[in-house]
Amino acid sequence: MLTYPLSGSSSELVINVLTMVLTEGKPLDRAYSHNFSGMQYPPAELARITLVTGDILRRLNLYCYLVDIKVEDIERTGSKLLNGWHLFHDLDLPKMEYALQVDSAQFAERLEVAKAQPALWDGCPEWLDELGAAQLGEKWPAERAALATAPKRYIRANSLKGTREELKQRLTKELVATVEVEGVESALEIRSDSALFKTEAFKQGYFEQQDAGSQLVAAAVDAKPGMRVVDACAGAGGKTLHIAAQMQGKGRLLAMDVEQWKLDNLKIRARRAGAHNVETRIIASSKTIKRMKLTADRVLLDVPCSGLGVLKRNPDSKWRDTPERLPVLIELQKDILQSYSRMVKVGGILVYATCSIMPDENRNQVDAFLAANPHFTLLDDELILVAEHGFDGFYLARMERISEV
User: For residues 292 and 301, what is the distance between their CA atoms, to the nearest angstrom?
Assistant: First the structure.
């Protein structure tokens, strides 16, 4: 956490980002990109700005309650929110022009009330608290609290270019402090406020930024050199590149998605990583999948989901229309699992994954699929809980096709 207040200009930048996210509906990463573009802030100051913005979004309802403002008024009352955040963390107030002041007596009163309401204290909206309690039971309070904490920074060593130990040495020379992550053999945790993407190690493809929990999902695919592997919901391609490294660049790795711009970005990342066996293919219709029936040794389905396991990293999801979208997402997951599983050949393995921690999107989906598809059998599954591991939350299940039908 900060040891001294934000500057006035940094405070205004935080308010601008919050306004874009909360009133204009922009995703947090795009709001950062828009506001940071052309800025000459040093990396450490940008890190401070993202730290404050992220913490406010992780516990937005708490901070709004403490200073008695409404989320929809954030553009007009953002300075009061920033002042309240600094008071909460025992920091001097930032020097902002025309800032709305906080009544310190009322603030202290509300602080005591908030301490007695665990869900509010953890920045958890009512809909999410009800869902988490229903889905996770006694495990939910610990998860709720963990999701209110700041995420750690992890990277994946690209084994196509070198070992994790070699990467660690390279980064040390570039003044980037790292530690190895126990239980995730490809992961390093970043321990310094470093401009990672400006390092030579990044430019030369020696690593990708990827959460340690995400690395466990790709590792479960267990792709071997020479295999035919499909990443059917490739998205930005982090797991695709991890699988390419598993395959040592040998064999065929097909990255598929419904959005061309994501695949175009993946091509750029693959070139930098030296992942020359990655092919991209847009999913234009169901015919794309039918043509590949019973051909793949491995299929990864990292399906669209609520993202309720990655709220530390994407806290703006708490304040979007997630509860309304959830039933639609669950139906989409079911359809993808049923349709895309046809690509797995007999003896091949299907890996179903989400970045959610809710059973309705995870084991319940898998159980329903297996009940309707006895030609698949469950090998194993894992729920990566945030409180237990410290990583982002993920789920993965590995299923083997034992017959054609």
Answer: 15
* Mean pLDDT, the chain, integer: 95
* Active-site residue, from 64, 124, 305, 355: 355
Q: List Cα–Cα distances, 61 to 21, 68, 99, in angstroms.
A: 15, 10, 20
Placement of tokens 């970045």 in the chain? 355
Cα separations (Å) of 319 from 21, 91, 123, 338?
9, 27, 11, 31
Predicted confidence (pLDDT) per residue in 262-289, tens digit: 999 999 999 999 999 999 999 888 888 9
Q: Is 150 exposed, middle or buried (0-12, 13-18, 19+ CB in 10 A)?
A: middle
Structure tokens at 279: 């092919």
Per the annotation, the verdict on 64 as an active-site residue is no
The per-residue pLDDT for 41 is 82
- Measure the CA–CA gap between 228 and 296, rounded to whole angstroms: 5
- Convert the pLDDT of each residue in 223-243 to its tens digit: 999 999 999 999 989 999 999
